[in-house]
Amino acid sequence: MSRIVSSRGMARVTAKKKASDANRAKKSTANEAKKTAKSLKTALARRPEGELGGDKLTFNHAMVYAKDVQRALDFYRELLGFKVVDEFHHEGKPVYARLRAPGGDGTIALHLAGPGTSLASDGVRLYFEIREIDDFCRKLQAKGFYITQMPRMMPWGWRHAYLNDPDGHEISLYWAGENRMKKTVMRAAKEVDKAPAAKGR
User: Fold this and answer.
1) What is the CATH number for 64?
2) Which residues of 51-67 are buried (b: 16+ CB within 10 A; e: fewer)?
3) What is the sign, positive or negative, of the torsion defined by CA atoms of 188, 190, 192, 195?
4) What does DSSP say about strands 93-100 and 149-153: parallel, antiparallel, or unpaired?
């Protein structure tokens, strides 16, 4: 009986510790956000008039944290077609992988999330462009994969589909074509709904 009580007690202690750690993490994130917002105002105020940011800055890759890197690899490599550039293992399991998009030089990295780490990413969405978006999504569906929104033309002139990776990170598959680097011209929602789904759009 004492062992049962002890086990239950340990479970309660563990649960309280996890909740406490989560609260501390939230407070830390909130404090960091406040510091960043304050420092941004300071930096902008001190910037010489007309000066731009780093003109040689380029976007390298996005880091995607996962609870199970092997599962994430199965999704990005086997279903979306990404090619593995580099991969690290610990105790026989992948903990990090860098992948290149099948249709270009864009890369993402998969990284094992630490214990208790929240993977919520409501403020971030990954976008992957593909001309044959309708055919690609139909093939994913045929394999049994769930797509939250099949391709449809959006008011800003891009054709979008939405889905989630195994860790809940939201992904948009889209085709913008020449519109990607042009100023957006919004169309009325009714007009978009009536427009036929042109192949490759």
Assistant:
1) 3.10.180.10
2) eeeeeeeeeeeeebbbe
3) negative
4) unpaired
- Kindly state the DSSP code that residue 195 receives in the 8-state scheme: S
Listed as own residue / partner, the contacts of 147-151 with beta carbons closer than 8 Å and 24 or more positions apart are: 151/175, 151/197
Q: Which amino acid is at 195?
A: A
Query: Which residues constitute the domain of residue 10?
Result: 1-56
Over residues 47-59, the pLDDT tens digits come to 777 676 667 788 8
Residue 118 CB partners (closer than 8 Å, separation 6+): 22, 25
Q: Write the DSSP assignment of 142-161 as a string of letters.
A: HTT---SEEEEE-TTS-EEE
CATH number, domain with residue 187: 3.30.720.110
Helix (H, G, I), strand (E, B) or coil at 47: coil
Token representation of residue 41: 């105002």
pLDDT digits (tens, 9 = 90+) for 95-147: 999 999 999 899 999 999 998 888 877 778 999 999 999 999 999 999 999 99
pTM for the whole thing? 0.73
CA distance 2 to 102: 58
pLDDT digits (tens, 9 = 90+) for 41-98: 888 788 777 676 667 788 899 999 999 999 999 999 999 999 999 999 999 999 999 9
Torsion of CA 62, 86, 72, 83, to 10 degrees: 90
